[in-house]
Specification:
With 234 residues, this protein is α+β, with helices and mostly antiparallel strands. It has 4 helices and 8 strands; from the N terminus they run αααββββαββββ. The radius of gyration is 47 Å and the shape is globular.
Length: 234
């Protein structure tokens, strides 16, 4: 009986040791688990910290959205500005209409000579010798740079083409011209230049010469169709 009691005591002690070891490992496991659980809040803390960042980001997009109306407001304001070229001023429209009116009479603004009626001799008497005077196209052309003018004349000295390159004309664009006078009767090319022709009647044409490089008028021409053919007019 003593031996078996000792064995029982030994077995009981061994069992106690095993239970204690199991408790310790469970404690350390639970300790490690609590650390993992503890780590999770700290890891989730940045996540939760980033969660408010999402509202701020949405607030930012909300700000952008709020800014969008104000951004669209300037866009709304700039729309008339972009549309401005399509609506020309009354002053420019009046200037272009005046060109057409004068052209019907064979005249160009600021030049006191009339196509088909005046002679190159009249010009020479008043303005002196031309800066250049050469044969070109259907006749001869005399250039008076100081007066921003050039004259085409035939062999009978009759003016058939009066050209003006006045600075006021060189501000005009095709869009402004077409909005005032409509589409041209015809269009021709001469190198870099495009020539927009408006018929003003049986006798005269009003031509706008616009280089591709500028998109604005270089000069206008009041052209006599019969004068250009009547090379021996006296």
């Amino acid at each position: 009986m003593k031996v078996s009691f000792k064995k029982a005591s030994y077995g009981f002690a061994l069992a106690s040791v095993l239970v204690l070891a199991a408790c310790n490992s469970a404690g350390s496991a639970s300790s490690g688990g609590s650390n993992a659980t503890g780590a999770s809040p700290s890891a989730s803390a940045p996540a939760s910290a980033s969660a408010p960042a999402s509202p701020s980001a949405s607030a930012g997009s909300g700000t952008d959205a709020a800014a969008s109306p104000s951004a669209s407001a300037p866009a709304g304001e700039s729309a008339p500005a972009s549309a401005a070229p399509t609506k020309i001023s009354a002053e420019v429209a009046a200037q272009i209409k005046e060109l057409l009116k004068l052209a019907k009479e064979g005249k160009a603004p600021g030049i006191p000579y009339v196509a088909h009626d005046s002679l190159i001799d009249d010009v020479r008497d008043d303005w002196g010798k031309a800066d250049s005077d050469d044969m070109a196209g259907k006749g001869f052309y005399a250039v008076y740079s100081k007066h921003h003018a050039a004259f085409g004349y035939n062999k009978g000295s009759q003016l058939f083409d009066i050209r003006s390159s006045d600075a006021k004309l060189q501000k005009l664009t095709l869009l402004q011209i077409e909005q005032t006078l409509g589409k041209p009767s015809s269009t021709t090319k001469n190198g870099d230049d495009t020539i927009y022709v408006y018929e003003t009647g049986k006798e005269f044409q009003l031509k706008f010469v616009i280089p591709k490089s500028t998109g604005k008028v270089d000069h206008i021409s009041v052209f006599s169709k019969t004068g250009s053919h009547n090379n021996m007019a006296g």
